[in-house]
Amino acid sequence: MKILCDIHVHSENSFDGESSVREICASAVEKGLSLIAITDHMEAPEIKNGDKSPYGNMMKQIAKSVSDVDAVAPEFEGKLEVLRGMELGEPMHEPKLTKKALEIADFDFILASVHNLKGEQDFYDLEYTEEGYGELLKRYFDELLDTAENAEFDSLAHLTYPLRYIVERLGIKPDLTPYRDTIDDIFRALIKREKALEMNTSGLFSPIGTTLPDIDLIRRFRELGGKYVTVGSDAHQSSRVAQGVERGIELIRTCGFEHYTVFEKRRPRMVEIWY
Ligand SMILES: [Zn+2]
Ligand SMILES: [Zn+2]
Known about the structure:
The chain is α/β, with parallel strands linked by helices and 275 residues long. The protein has a single domain (4-272), classed as Alpha-Beta Barrel (TIM Barrel), CATH 3.20.20.140. 34% of the residues lie in helices and 20% in strands. It has 8 helices and 9 strands. Helix 4 (133-150) packs parallel to helix 6. The longest helix has 18 residues, at 133-150. The radius of gyration is 17 Å and the shape is globular. The N and C termini lie close together (9 Å). One zinc ion binds at residues 8, 10, 87, 234.
């Protein structure tokens, strides 16, 4: 039996999300999911900007996300588990604000992301040049290493996130050789701290055409002793919930894993992969 779970999904409580938690859950049931985690955006450094943040009031949005999950979950009992998650952006930039974010609720699952480097805009908003992207990537992997070693979270989201934009804008697929050692150190930190690596399936539907990270890196994570891999569509609309998840799980199996992982009350739970 195929047990499908999607634990990276955005609701309307994210600045870039479109659907209500109820719409998302209905779509998840339609697509045969057993479990979903709503992981709305919490760009922790933005807390200080309150209502003036371009992302909206982060504290209010996450409180609303959690209360929507709590209100809707009972309606789906027996059909779909609906969990309280959060996508925690830049947890190392302002540790005090990050702590505040983590105290909003008792979460089931925390994803950690780096969407922008210290002092820079989101990778989505940057200009890329052939001469300049290497330096950006170096800084990106360095910040991710700091995150993997020091932040509080359960799974590291969409490793190689900037590649999506570099491929899209420059039509170049960067060679990751110069960053291999840092990436290995990121994996070792995750393994030592018993954290998970996310396979984000959104890349399958963008010009890069691979999961983030791709299976070569997932395989490397396993080689070094990695145990926990989570899967998420990163859907921002209910119609996209579960997109690529079944394929993603099958790819995880090809990397030698017999299970993928979901989190409940911040604890890993292994889900067997069919074959
Ligand atoms: Zn993200
Ligand atoms: Zn996301």
